[in-house]
Amino acid sequence: MTDNLLAQQNANTMALIAYICMLTGLLFPVTMVAAVVIAYVYRGTDTVLDTHFGNVIRVFWWGLGIGIFGLLTSFIVVGWVVLFGLYVWILIRMIRGLSALKRGVPFGAPPVLAPVPPDSEAEA
């Protein structure tokens, strides 16, 4: 039981490191390769964490393809717009992933909203 808990914490830490590497990759793209290697190695350890590792892998491959397209078309304005959109998309996906990882829910789960307090006038 203790080994399973330790492996779970280790995989959770590695998911956090993968997300941080992806965010760092926005400035230093080489770290994105480290993130996707971590994601492939630790994929299959836990069903909740698999969604996070899958997110890192998906963002890496889609980002690589869209980034190449953006670079090839950067001599016209369209390429710069594509690259900017890619940057924003990666940033949003990684922040959403970090938020879900912190809450311990799968990537893509709806955010938890604070309960709305009852209106005191409606009860009176």
A few lines on this structure:
The chain crosses the membrane at residues 16-42, 62-92. The protein has 124 residues and is mainly alpha-helical.
Defining key terms:
124 residues, 0% strand, mainly alpha, flat
Helix-strand category: mainly alpha
Strand content: under 5%
> What is the total domain count?
1
Uncertain stretches of 5 or more adjacent residues: none
Tell me, briefly, the overall form.
flat
- Radius of gyration, whole Å: 19 Å
The biggest sheet amounts to:
none
Order of helices and strands: HHHHH
Counting DSSP E segments of at least 2 residues, the number of strands comes to 0
Helical segment count = 5
Mean pLDDT: 86
How far do the termini sit from each other?
A: 53 Å
Percent helix range: over 70%
Transmembrane segments: 16-42, 62-92
Keywords: Membrane, Transmembrane, Transmembrane helix
Protein name: DUF4870 family protein
Organism: Phaeospirillum tilakii
Structure description:
With 124 residues, the chain is mainly α. The protein has one domain (2-106). The chain contains 5 helices and no strands. The mean pLDDT is 86.
Give the helix/strand layout.
Elements (H helix, E strand, L loop, with lengths): L1 H23 L5 H13 L4 H26 L4 H27 L16 H4 L1
Helix pairs in contact: 1-2, 1-3, 1-4, 2-3, 3-4
